[in-house]
Design brief:
CATH architecture of the largest domain in chain A: Orthogonal Bundle
Number of strands of chain A: 0
Number of strands of chain B: 10
Radius of gyration of chain B: 19 Å
Number of domains of chain A: 2
Shape of chain B: globular
Largest interface: A-B, 21 and 29 residues
Order of helices and strands of chain B: HEEEHEEEHHHHEHEHEEH
CATH superfamily of one domain in chain B: P-loop containing nucleotide triphosphate hydrolases
Largest sheet of chain B: 6 strands, mixed
Helix content of chain A: over 70%
Largest sheet of chain A: none
Oligomer: heterodimer
Strand order of the largest sheet of chain B: 6-7-8-3-9-10
Number of helices of chain A: 11
Shape of chain A: globular
CATH superfamily of the largest domain in chain A: MetI-like
CATH architecture of one domain in chain B: 3-Layer(aba) Sandwich
Strand content of chain B: 15-25%
Chain lengths: ~280, ~280
């Protein structure tokens, strides 16, 4: 009991803070304080970067200033190039993700549900999953051409194994008490699978999906960087070949934005489905 | 669907009726159970065990740990098959899991993503009862086990005792002919344990259901049961079979101070043979 209270008391400040009114400045629970610090930090980094560029501390050939990046992004939007390339990248990412996630969940459920399959396949899965598949990207280009297919396949190969392994782990982590309960309550194998195993594996499956979405984007961009006609990855390559760092950083900013949106989207879907907790 | 209807019919018939004690409910017939342990040895858990339980009787099985008490319940639930001999319920030899049996464990087995209500409704749900029907039934049972107002609570919001009450309501919801209880109160603190023992007996008396309780708590066995069977250390054999002729309805709490209770408990302690070096877990 005493220990529990100590931990609670300790939660507010993990390190000693001067007590003369400055406490609010370092209050980890004050949303305003936290946002003020975040903005200050961002301003410091971007300001320092701009200053370094303006004072010619860095050769503009290597590092574009934030102002130059903003200028590039403005032109990029106005010329419409942003939409063409983003759309290609997004399409490939979503397609690779959907295929990889769908088949990954299916395979994970089948393998997780069978001790035999699990034992036979585990070494192969470990090998495939630890293999850096992006290194296979050049081969995928040779096999599937420089069009969208090679990028989709690369994204698929990343997502599939991530989702498969997390699904399988989710199925295997089901408390045996629960499946035993379902069995003695008269649930059929099918009911046990749907009402207990699948349901219990949902959190783990979602962890895999969230990771998979980001890796799907990664796979597509790497594929585009090697050989493509369109896409944000191809744009990064084009601008760096032409010594246009503002273009490289601008496209990277767009990619970061897409990655954040993907992450936010999967988190929201998860939270929405999280309502499975409240009804039968 | 059909399974559920049958279950309701039985409930209507059995309510208030005196059980037909001349009929046999459970028959354990010269059962031997062997299994291969993790280090590859063949272990004889039970040897030549026969138990006849008439309809509506409450039987407790006690014995040192590892004597195969739980194996008997698992056989009756159809989870394991005896190496030799057979077990039957209502004259039918058990070959697999059956919906006539309600099995309750020391651990509650509540599905953490379901409310208490939906947990209690689980058995009716898998039997195909309509949603309105099963939720109404679940609410009624939760009230009977003293959990009115906790219908929407999740496992994480309930105490150990309350979880075990949910498990009890869940088991009662399928209206089994036979209750198999594997130390259902074993994981509870001493006070909660007595409260739940009392509640189970109160809910069970007059239902005419047969109960087989496995426990290592001798007071629990004597206080609750009509009959206590003592098993010997491994391989488990029946050492004694003692009728508990304490009156019913029984007050679980005060019966412990009864002189007859003390005599019966002492006799069981002696049969288990603590002083003889038997291991009581």
């Amino acid at each position: 009991m005493t220990q529990f209270r100590l931990v609670v008391a300790d939660r507010r400040s993990r390190f000693p803070v001067p007590s003369f009114g400055l406490r609010v400045l370092f209050d980890p629970d004050n949303l305003f304080t936290i946002w003020a610090w975040r903005l200050a930090l961002a301003a410091l980094v971007i300001g320092g970067w701009q200053a370094a560029a303006a004072l010619r501390l860095v050769d503009p050939m290597f590092l574009a200033s934030p102002v130059a990046v903003c200028g590039f992004l403005f032109d990029y939007v106005v010329s419409g190039k942003i939409w063409v390339n983003s759309l290609v990248t997004l399409e490939e990412t979503v397609l690779g993700f959907a295929l990889g996630a769908g088949l990954g969940i299916l395979a994970g459920l089948v393998i997780g549900g069978s001790k035999f399959l699990e034992r036979v396949l585990t070494p192969f899965l470990t090998i495939f999953n630890s293999l850096p598949r992006v290194a296979l990207a050049p081969m995928f280009i040779i096999w599937f051409g420089i069009g969208a297919l090679s990028k989709v396949v690369l994204a698929f190969s990343l997502v599939f194994f991530i989702v498969l392994i997390s699904t399988e782990a989710g199925v295997r982590s089901i408390d045996p008490d629960l499946t035993m309960m379902a069995k003695v309550m008269g649930a059929t194998d099918r009911q046990r699978f749907l009402k207990v195993v699948l349901h219990g594996a949902v959190p783990s499956i979602f962890a895999g999906l969230r990771l998979g979405a980001i890796y799907s984007l990664l796979g597509v961009v790497v594929g585009e960087m090697i050989a493509a006609k369109w896409g944000l990855g191809q744009q990064v390559m084009e601008y760096s070949y032409n010594y246009k760092p503002a273009g490289v950083f601008g496209v990277l900013a767009i990619l970061a934005l897409i990655a954040i949106c993907l992450n936010e989207l999967t988190t929201r879907i998860e939270r929405h489905l999280g309502r499975w907790k409240t009804e039968d | 669907m059909i399974g559920y209807r049958e279950a309701t019919d039985i409930r209507v018939k059995s309510a208030g009726d005196a059980p037909d004690r001349t009929r046999l409910s459970i028959k354990v017939d010269r059962v031997r159970h062997e299994y291969i342990s993790q280090n590859g040895e063949r272990v004889v858990a039970l040897d030549d065990v026969s138990i006849d339980v008439p309809n509506g009787q409450f039987v407790a099985i006690v014995g040192p740990s590892g004597c195969g008490k739980t194996s008997i319940l698992n056989m009756l639930a159809g989870l394991i098959v005896p190496t030799r001999g057979a077990v039957s319920i209502d004259g039918e030899i058990v070959t697999g899991t059956s919906r006539a049996v309600g099995y309750m464990f020391a651990r509650d087995g509540m599905l953490p993503w379901r409310t208490a209500q939906a947990n209690v409704a689980f058995g009716l749900e898998v039997r195909g009862a309509s949603k309105a029907e099963r939720l109404a039934q679940a609410d009624a049972l939760l009230e009977r086990v003293g959990l009115k107002g906790f219908e929407r609570a999740f496992r994480s919001q309930l105490s150990h005792g309350m979880r075990q009450r949910v498990a009890l309501a869940r088991t009662m919801a399928i209206d089994p002919k036979v209750f198999l209880l594997d130390e259902p109160f074993g994981a509870l603190d001493a006070q909660t344990r007595i409260v739940l023992q009392e509640e189970f007996v109160r809910l069970w008396e007059n239902t005419g259901k047969t109960v087989l309780l496995v426990t290592h708590d001798i007071s629990e066995a004597v206080a609750m049961a009509d009959r206590v069977i003592v098993l010997s250390p491994r391989p488990g054999r029946i050492k004694s079979d003692i009728a508990i002729d304490l009156p019913r309805p029984r007050d679980i709490e005060s019966v412990r101070f009864d002189e007859k209770f003390a005599r019966l408990a002492r006799r069981i302690w002696r049969d288990i043979g603590v002083r003889g070096g038997g291991d009581i877990a």
